[in-house]
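OP here, attaching both records as promised.
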Amino acid sequence: MRNIDTAFGHVRSFTMLVILVSTIICCYTLYKSFTSITLMQDKVYILVNGKALEAYSSDRKDNVPVEARDHVKTFHGFFFTLDPDDKVIKTNITKALYLADDTAKRVYDNLKENGYYSGIISGNISQRISIDSITIDTNQYPYDFKCYAKQNIIRTTSILNRNLITEGTLRNVSRSDNNPHGFLIERWNTIENKDLGVENRK
């Protein structure tokens, strides 16, 4: 009887140990499974030229500075990239105006009334912009920004270089094909737009 009680105690202890170890293994397996599923849901595979490229999704708040800077850069690129072609000018300005409020539209209307765009077409002038830097203040909403850039106005015989500084705010809006970043530039204002010098073209 004593041996039976001892054996029973050993079996019970061994059984409890097996149950405990099995529970720990099951809990660990479930944890790793949920972790793996969560990681897989954050991955996106993009097919480019027959090759699958892996990308990761993230919350918008993690990408606000990057997306905001690109939004400002895209707007200025469209607004200030001009060629002596009425269709090109209208296409670029239309794209730019999707990214900003009526303050940009008023600037465009003023330039148009003053004959700026007709002068570009009649003078066979091209205009390019290169962004030096963009600062975004994400500590307050709407986000304040400043854009520092250089303009090149290319004429037949010369290139006029200009320094351009603009400022404004960014407000969140819905994303769309015309506004993929989901921002709208408001209170857009040119702080400085002065000539730096003229280069003769060879």
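Record two, same layout:
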Amino acid sequence: MNRVVVITGGSRGIGAATARLAASRGYAVCINYRSNSQAAEALVDEITASGCQAIAVAGDVSIEADVVRLFETAERQLGVIGALVNNAGILERQGRVETIGAERLARIFAVNVTGSFLCAREAVRRMSTKRGGAGGAIVNVSSMAARLGAPNEYVDYAAAKGAIDSFTIGLAKEVADEGIRVNAVRPGIIDTDIHASGGEPGRVERLKDSVPMKRGGRPEEVANAILWLLSDEASYSTGAFIDICGGR
């Protein structure tokens, strides 16, 4: 398998941890980001300083033209793409369903669902053996919210991640005989700054006692599972899910 990976939402949190680990394992890494150029470029500098190859490409995954440009840039600068991590995702401030409007729903689904579809489309067009590609692997970053529903907090986000679960299963079956494996990870309560964007920076601390392991997870723990699913060690796994949730 080619060792070029595109990681969406790669400038922070799970995406950044995945980029670091992928680089350490020999991947050339394309870090996609939407607006935080400073974090993305700092991560590229960190990776390249260690002797590995990385680039940062700005783009909103919910915009089709940005996605196309992302993949064209990665291919032009790094080579044939053999792996995709659909990690870009957003949530909005905690609230109940009766407070959620259509504009918020459109934003949540545009990034979390449409963005993953568009990126997977571009990856499949390049990887599929039926199109002359050499195969590859896609890992979608879902969430335990898809199973738990996130009541009183992020039911819209949970619903979007439920769509990602269905998407993972369907795409995996669709391209299984084209040399492409499609799997997903479902992180639980992970200590990243996404909680601040939902209005509660201390959410991990509040909820950790509800986790059987009595702690939040680390981004690196999710990255380890992602890299395993991308690797040849997972060569007979497609349409599979790894829950990284401390038993919750």
